[in-house]
Amino acid sequence: MDNLEEAVTVLQRGGVIAYPTEGMFGLGCDPFNESAVRRIATIKKRSLDKGMILIAAHWRQVEPFVKDVSSEQKEIVKKSWPGHTTWLFPASAIVPTWIKGDLGKVALRVPNHEIARGLCAEFNTPIVSTSANIHGEPPCKSAKEVKEQLAVFVDFVVEGEIGQARGPSTIRDLATGKNLR
After folding, report:
1. Average pLDDT, stretch 75-91?
2. pTM of the predicted model, to two decimals?
């Protein structure tokens, strides 16, 4: 079984994984598994009020999670993906409250990182993506760092290198176009 297949098996069983993204390692799980999402929030010592970012393999995976997106807005988003930009969309009815947080929106990105996109493609749905760190601490930049700092908290670490991005993704609100991070 290869690295991605094993990670997907862990996701399917409700586990938490760590995996490389464009600028750091991320923690991920099935966004529909409330206990797994709550476990990530506990690991990070972070409230679910802020919501969670989801990453996807392509636009078709994103589409069921969003509502009321004009064709012009869709084109703007698609031009930035795959990439290091997360967009806040109006959330469809399928998005769980533990993903939306207090904003009532859903944060989505199609990453420009082969492993991260591959995970979503193999899992066949978007996955949670938040930095692999305890809130306020620097994010892990390698599988070795994840294993040293978070091994007792995660069920599987996907081997691989992070991309060239410096820091977390930019977050933009689709309704206003404003950069939020």
Report:
1. 96
2. 0.95
